[in-house]
Amino acid sequence: MANPLLSPSPLPYGLPPFAEIRDEHYTEAVDAGIAEQLAEIDAITSSAEPPTFENTAAAMERSGRLLLRAVTSFMTMVSSHGTEPIRELETQIMPKLSAHEDTIRLNRALRDRFAAIDTAGLDAESRRLVEEWLNDFRRAGADLGEAGQARLRELNAELSRLGTEYGQRVAKAINEAAVLVEDESELAGLPADDRSSAAEAAKAAGHESGWLLTFVQPTGQPVLSVLENRGLRERVFKASIARGSSGGDIDVLGLVAEMARLRAEKAALLGYATYADLALDDQTAPSTEAVREMLGQLAPAAVRNAAAEAQTLAEAAGHALEPWDWAFYSAKVRRERFAVDEQALRPYFELDRVLQDGVFHAAGRLYGVRFEERPDLVGYHDDVRVWEVFDADGAGLGLFLGDYFARPTKRGGAWMNALVEQARLTGDRPVVINNLNIGKPAPGEPALLTLDQARTAFHEFGHALHALLSDVEYPKFSGTNVPRDFVEYPSQVNEMWLLWPEVVASYARHHETEEPLPHEQINALDAAQLWGEGYATTEYLAAALLDLAWHSLSAGDDPGDPLAFESRALEDAGVAVPLIPPRYRTGYFQHIFAGGWYAAGYWSYIWSEVLDADTVEWFKENGGLTRANGDTFRAQLLSRGFSRDPLESFRAFRGRDADVAPLLARRGLG
Fold it and tell me: 93, 117, 143 — which closes off a domain?
């Protein structure tokens, strides 16, 4: 069979023809794509013509089309359907991609041509493109001598290998950590649909009987809030926090220590004191000191709030509280104090209703877009659904793919990624994917979401909107290609519509009776918003500060035993709370160690939340869910990507810099 990746996809919007792609096609396409882009770059650098924007910057933006097709398709498989053959290919392909990236970013001849471009007559976005490429060359080490570049290539190759291995071990660990229950009486409190999902999971894992409690990526497992059996809660909790750090072939602690050491060496080679300083060089935050100052201001208040919550929970429990008790008694207090029973709400949050009448409905009200499911278009797995997205004028915007159910071949957590990115230069329109990890119901049963899962659906769709509504000239600036400490901002804003009156009235209906979610329940949810913020903020800050600690080592520093390092880091940061482990511990902190996109940047969620909370206030002040408000947010922010400074886009939207007060009020830290 001819390799379908070697030519542009004939499907709408360039959707990869997954039904025709075989595993072996990826290696061939990646190799051909690397060779093709190297030839394109050689044509740029060997040109006898003086460097111009068109023959250098624009030519570079047009290059690598084959490689991009191959890589986006392959990386989608790695994260969403990482079968054993795909994992094996990952170990072969990732070093090639790392080396290719170095070949581009360390190319002095290419850098020199960019530096020679006369930008005086260019429009603002084109000038910015040249500036950002030059910044990339500098940060990547193009100014280093031959020996320095050679060492940098070695470091990048080894870090790529270690990150790949970390991700693969963690993916295996999350499956192996799942807890098998053979006595149904132990499952008291677990809703019937979750029991059915657990029984299906046990069968899928090869067990003849029983119920398999599968895990999500963070420390806190959703079942801990409902399981009445304290012993089973303890088993689940201990299995969760032990992932990646209990020895054997899925232990990642040695990989972490080596990655931290190599990242510190890389930062020093590039002229930075620590890897955290290198990572912050291209963010909106001004410095590591500013980030530490913000986190340091938030931590004491969060820990105090958490301590008060713990006292309330211990009183409700009637015994000494343990970490595996927190979620269970927190849910109990929420029911008794605020009349909120999140498990009782699940029948009102059926997946398809949440999507069609909630997520899509809100986007339609705000931006005038509509969604038409395309069953004729297939994804990379039977669970994947495809929608075509149309603008208010009827023009096609792109495709949206939804992949919502957990499976053993899928990494934990929730995320958005793009298969095709919008750019006027190339004529591409976006194809984006949302991934969640909801337990797949038994055949014929509805997929009922928790409130948190519904919120996650809105959150990830905020990322999708950032890509779908992108309107930039150059691929480099498209959609979510913004600094890490800005990328979460639009997605966090989109969470506000989850319980917005017009939206919740549209989608939150009992899946059997069609009765709407009672108003008193919505009011109770609003009243209960601050409950649990002490815990939530503390567990988040613990992870963010742990991340910074791992990436604040200087070259030559020895972190020693990783778990001891983790304990010291949390203690030094004032967030070592025995009842509240970090949201992610070292053994399963994929954000920062598997690929490293959030390395030294997990703090960016709360940095973005400052912008988010202030934006929510703007929507409330200006009438909420209206086309006028949506059009303003779209025009000044969502459509802009990185085509101008993100904080400039925020100021153009808000009329001023962000105010931290709404965030402090939201988290009860004021």
Answer: 143
User: What pLDDT is attached to residue 595?
Assistant: 80
379 and 500 in a common domain: yes
Residue 18, C-beta contacts closer than 8 angstroms, at least 6 positions apart: 73, 378, 379, 380
Specify the DSSP element, H or E, that contains 432: strand 431-438
Query: Do both 468 and 501 map to the same domain?
Result: yes
User: What was the pLDDT predicted at 1?
Assistant: 76
Does residue 502 carry a catalytic annotation?
no
Single residue among 243, 265, 293 that ends a domain in this structure:
243
Strand partners for 141? none
Domain with 397, as residue range(s), is: 346-527
| DSSP 8-class letter at 499 | G
pLDDT in tens, 446-481: 999 999 999 999 999 999 999 999 999 999 999 999
Task: Please give the average per-residue pLDDT across 287-291, as a whole number.
Answer: 95
CATH code of the domain in which 58 resides: 1.20.1050.40
Q: Specify whether 382 is located in the same domain as 443.
A: yes
In this structure, is residue 116 part of a structural domain?
yes
Write out pLDDT tens, residues 63-107. Answer: 999 999 999 999 999 999 999 999 999 999 999 999 999 999 999
Q: Judge if 400 and 519 occupy the same domain.
A: yes
Residues 375 and 505 in one domain: yes
What strands lie across the sheet with 385-390, from one edge to the other? 370-373, 385-390, 396-405, 431-438, 415-420
Q: What is the token pair recorded at 247?
A: 């020895």
What's the token pair of residue 83?
């079968």
pLDDT tens sequence across 310-340: 999 999 999 999 999 999 999 999 999 999 9
Amino acid identity of residue 512, one-letter, is E
Half-sphere exposure of residue 213, counting CA atoms within 13 Å on the CB side? 23
**How many structural domains comprise the chain?**
4
Q: Could you tell me if 110 and 192 lie in one domain?
A: no
Percent of the chain at pLDDT exceeding 70: 100
Average pLDDT over residues 249-270: 98
Residue 519 lies in a domain: yes
Other beta carbons within 10 angstroms of residue 231's beta carbon come to 10
Residue 435 phi/psi, 5° resolution? Answer: -115, 130
| DSSP single-letter state for residue 450 | P
Please write down the long-range contacts of 611-614, taking CB distance under 8 Å and 24 or more positions apart: 611/486, 611/489, 611/650, 611/658, 612/488, 612/489, 612/492, 612/493, 612/663, 613/662, 613/663, 613/665, 613/666, 614/654, 614/658, 614/659, 614/662, 614/663
502 and 571 housed in the same domain: no
In terms of domains, do 404 and 547 share one? Answer: no
pLDDT, averaged across the chain: 97
Q: Which residue among 350, 460, 488, 609 is the active-site one?
A: 460
Rounded to two decimals, the pTM is 0.94
Structure-token pair, residue 505: 């009235």
